[in-house]
Amino acid sequence: MNFQHSARILKIVKKEGDLREFEHCKLKCVVMRPMFDSKVPHASVHLCGYVGVPENHPLYGKDYEDHHFDIHGGLTFSADRRPVKHGDPEPPNDGLWWFGFDCNHSNDYGFPLAMGGTYRTMNYVARETRKLARQLSIIRKEK
């Protein structure tokens, strides 16, 4: 059994990079590859998307499991710290509450052992992250 990523996947990963930061609907957004290490042939290449909401947002401090958003795989993360790549030091608190999702579900390609699955590109995850930011900004306006 092959425990390494294909050359095609590694080429895409290298071209995309591991991090993209932007603002959408006046909210901070991050797309990152939290677990990839090019020195580990079987490390996951999946991406995650995160959106930070300020303290005055109605969902600030709320658990992701209590809320449903129309994004890839649903929410899988909420915390008072911006997420970091596995092994990196924890960042200082930036005053935001972060919600996030991952692209490492059974229908996604992340680990080389995954049988099939679709690799979700940086552009795809950035679109889904903007979608989450839009949904969070609407809640902000409604409250």
What does this structure look like?
With 143 residues, this protein is α+β, with helices and mostly antiparallel strands. The chain has one domain. Helix content is 22%, strand content 19%. The chain contains two helices and five strands; from the N terminus they run H-E-E-E-E-E-H. It has helices at 7-16, 122-142, and strands spanning 19-24, 27-32, 48-53, 77-79, 97-102. The protein has a five-stranded antiparallel β-sheet, with helices on one face. Strand 1 and strand 2 (27-32) form a beta hairpin. It is globular, with a radius of gyration of 16 Å. The N and C termini lie far apart (53 Å).
Using brief descriptors, characterize the structure shown.
19% strand, 22% helix, alpha+beta, 143 residues
Number of helices: 2
Backbone structural class: alpha+beta
Sheet with the most strands: spatial strand order: 1-2-3-5-4
Largest sheet: 5 strands, antiparallel
Q: Outline, from the CA principal axes?
A: globular
Extract low-pLDDT stretches. Answer: none
Roughly how many Å is the radius of gyration? 16 Å
Helix content: 10-25%
Portion of residues in beta strands equals 15-25%
Total beta strands: 5
Overall pLDDT = 82
- Tell me the span between the first and last alpha carbons: 53 Å
Count of domain modules: 1
Topology pattern, helix = H, strand = E: HEEEEEH
